[in-house]
Design a protein that fits this description.
The chain is an alpha+beta fold. Helix content is about 40%, strand content about 30%. The strands form two sheets. A five-stranded antiparallel β-sheet has the order 3-2-1-4-5. The longest helix has about 45 residues, at about 5-45.
Length: about 325
């Protein structure tokens, strides 16, 4: 086989590895994010039993860190009413709507594992009886946000990199731009909870206030300083027609609303059908677009390096393995 034929065969093999890598990545993501949750529900459907229970404890915790990361945890513990050796408190994984409907002392029917070994291999120990798949999906989505969208959008990014990067040359700038936009979106303090549709106003109490001063903080990196520091405020209020208060998080520019202090009361605007989608009435919100541009020095460096490389390859073809004519 000639040298050119051997190089062509190697090139075709390397191109075939790319879609294989993308498919394997998608399969691994499925095994990590979807399969354990799906399998746990199916195991409960097949091997679980319905048991009457009563709600013993319920709590809602919203945690905010100075790197802009925040999370919500809904904790609902029930106790089986049937006497038996295993009458301990059992956690239920429910979506926020089901959580709001349940109060301490309320009775309900749960579906739990009949075998003592089943919880060891199941992601879920128990769930409300009769729960439909849309409710199960909402509970899974709320628990994993924003990890699941981040992982799956990263897989889609691999597809974009492959589609636009096959031709080489300037076509590679498209996936580079997509990559920077993707990182900018996920590391920027964009709120996924914005009131939409019908809204209502009420008074809420400020539970905590955290000032975010950096982005992308990890154990290996201190992250990037934000262009515009902002305050992450956790508020608690009782929505119209509800029996239990809810906690929500909103963000405003640091220092733009002096009354935003722990223990103070503030006016909030919330979504009627989803009260955790809330906005504090007052303060500026320029942080979200100002902090989108933290990455521009890095983007400029990448673009400059690509331009220098392209010009250098035009001047000295041997840089990419091409010999000049007569050489």
């Amino acid at each position: 086989m000639s040298a050119s034929g051997h190089a062509a065969s190697q090139g075709s093999e390397s191109k075939g590895l790319v879609p294989a890598f993308i498919l394997v990545t998608a399969f691994v993501l499925f095994l990590i994010t979807v399969a354990p949750y799906l399998g746990s529900h199916l195991l409960l459907d097949w091997r679980g039993t319905d048991t009457p229970a009563v709600v013993e404890q319920r709590s809602e915790t919203v945690t905010a860190l100075e790197d802009g990361v925040w999370s919500r945890k809904l904790r609902l513990l029930v106790k089986p009413e049937e006497p038996g050796p295993d009458s301990r408190l059992i956690p239920l994984l429910v979506d926020s709507a089901a959580f709001d409907r349940l109060s301490v002392g309320q009775k309900l029917t749960i579906r739990r594992h009949a075998s003592p070994w089943a919880p060891l291999v199941s992601r879920l120990e128990a769930r409300p009886a009769g729960q439909m798949w849309p409710e199960r999906f909402r509970a899974w989505w709320e628990e994993g946000w924003p990890l699941f969208p981040f992982l799956w959008s990263g897989w889609l990014l691999l597809v974009v990199l492959w589609l636009f990067g096959r031709g080489g040359g300037w076509g590679c700038l498209v996936p580079i731009i997509c990559t920077l936009a993707w990182l900018g979106y996920w590391l920027s303090p964009l709120s996924d909870e914005v009131p939409r549709g019908e809204t209502k106003r009420t008074t809420a109490q400020v539970v905590s206030v955290t000032v975010a001063t950096k982005l992308g903080d990890t154990e290996y990196s201190t992250g990037f300083p934000v262009v515009q520091p902002y305050q992450m405020a956790v508020v608690e209020f009782l929505p119209s027609g509800a029996t239990n208060p809810v906690r929500a998080l909103d963000r405003i520019d640091a220092g733009s609303f002096p009354r935003l202090r722990k223990g103070n009361e503030v006016e909030v605007i919330y979504q009627a059908g989803s009260p955790r989608n809330v906005r504090i009435a007052g303060g500026r919100r320029a942080y979200w677009w100002k902090n989108l541009f933290w990455w521009w020095p890095y983007a400029a460096a990448v673009a400059l390096g690509w331009l220098v490389w392209t010009l250098a390859c035009g001047r000295w073809p041997w840089l990419h393995g091409t010999r000049p004519a007569g050489g």
